[in-house]
Each structure stands twice: as structure tokens, then as C-alpha cells.
Amino acid sequence: MEREITGVMVYYHEVCRRKLWYFYHGIQMEQENENVRIGKVLDEESYKRDDKHINIDNVINIDFIRSSGVLHEVKKSRKIEEAGILQVKYYLYYLKKKGVTDIRARIDYPLLKQSLEIELTEEDEQKIEFVLEDIHKITESEVPQKVEKKSICKSCAYYDLCFI
Ligand code: SF4
């Protein structure tokens, strides 16, 4: 059976195609990475009171604030903001395909005390469809994409695999 494309996979597609391939093929080193650890702590510590963590089909894994009907993603920094935005838009897209449209989304950056409202436009939907197709192509490949050095490589959990 074909595996569903998760929000994390959409995020990795935007951040690094090679990282997406590693992740999809079960090579996971994220637990050891300090940035991911900080992310997890943030996830657990922020907005404790009104959160309800929801998981739909193992594709959407996000907090939902019931009182305001908002899907709610917490990010540590705005460093790779576009990828985080597309991830949340993918959640809205996925829910729309399931008939759920009366829902809003927001990304919060608690360390920066900022937040961003996320909306899904028609253009976004087209982009997401292109990304989903590309994710299929990348993950079906027998080998990962070539290494392309980026500014985020130094803080990537797969750094040793790519550069040593
Ligand atoms: S180290 Fe760089 S090239 Fe390798 S997976 Fe991470 S982000 Fe991609």
C-alpha cells in the first residue's frame, strides 16, 4: 500500500530533498539533534492549557485549539519559515479534501512572541499538488538526491551522513 504523505514530508521537501529521502527510507537521526530536542520541549511546554493534540490518518499531527477552531503549529524560529507555512497549508489542503473547510490555522513562534495566520489559496493548492507529485518521485528513487550544501546543513541531523 502506498504510504500517505505526511506534513513532515512536505516540510522536508521544502527544506532539503535529500533529507526527505533519508526520512522516508527510515533513516532517522533526529532524536539526537539538539534543535529537534528544543522543538519537542517547546511543543510540550507551550500552550499546555488549551491544546488538544490531533492525529488524522497519521498525516496530520498537530495541536488543535478547540475553543477557537484553530490548527496550531509551534515553531522555534522563523529560519525556514516557508517550509513550515507550506506544511500547515498542506494540513488545510488535506482537511479540505476530506470535506473540512471551517477551520483556521496559525503558526506560533513562542520564543519570538509572534504568530502567523495561515490561509489556503487556490495557488497554494496547485503548488501542493506539484509538491506531492515531486515527493512521490523523490521517495520512489533508489538513491537519495545529490548533496547540495546549504546553510542549514550544519544543524541538520544527517550532516555526518552527507559530509563525512
Ligand atoms: S546535511 Fe544538508 S544536504 Fe544533507 S540532508 Fe541535511 S540539509 Fe540535506
UniProtKB/TrEMBL annotation:
Query: What is the similarity comment for this entry?
Result: Belongs to the CRISPR-associated exonuclease Cas4 family.
> Pfam families, per this entry?
Cas_Cas4
What gene is it encoded by? cas4
Which cofactors go with this protein? iron-sulfur cluster; Mg(2+); Mn(2+)
- Enumerate the GO terms in the molecular function aspect: exonuclease activity; iron-sulfur cluster binding; metal ion binding
State how the cofactor is bound.
Answer: Mg(2+) or Mn(2+) required for ssDNA cleavage activity.
Q: Give the EC number(s) listed in the UniProt record.
A: 3.1.12.1
**Alphabetical UniProt keywords:** Antiviral defense, Exonuclease, Hydrolase, Iron, Iron-sulfur, Manganese, Metal-binding, Nuclease
The DUF83 domain, residue ranges: 6-164
Q: Which GO biological process annotations does it have?
A: defense response to virus
Would the keyword Metal-binding turn up in this protein's UniProt record?
A: yes
Please report the name of this protein according to its UniProt entry. CRISPR-associated exonuclease Cas4
Instruction: Show the NCBIfam families listed in the entry.
Output: cas4 (TIGR00372)
The record, for Gene3D superfamilies, names: 3.90.320.10
What organism is recorded for this protein?
Answer: Mediterraneibacter catenae
Q: Provide the function of this protein.
A: CRISPR (clustered regularly interspaced short palindromic repeat) is an adaptive immune system that provides protection against mobile genetic elements (viruses, transposable elements and conjugative plasmids). CRISPR clusters contain sequences complementary to antecedent mobile elements and target invading nucleic acids. CRISPR clusters are transcribed and processed into CRISPR RNA (crRNA).
Top-level EC class? hydrolase
Q: Does the keyword Cell inner membrane apply?
A: no
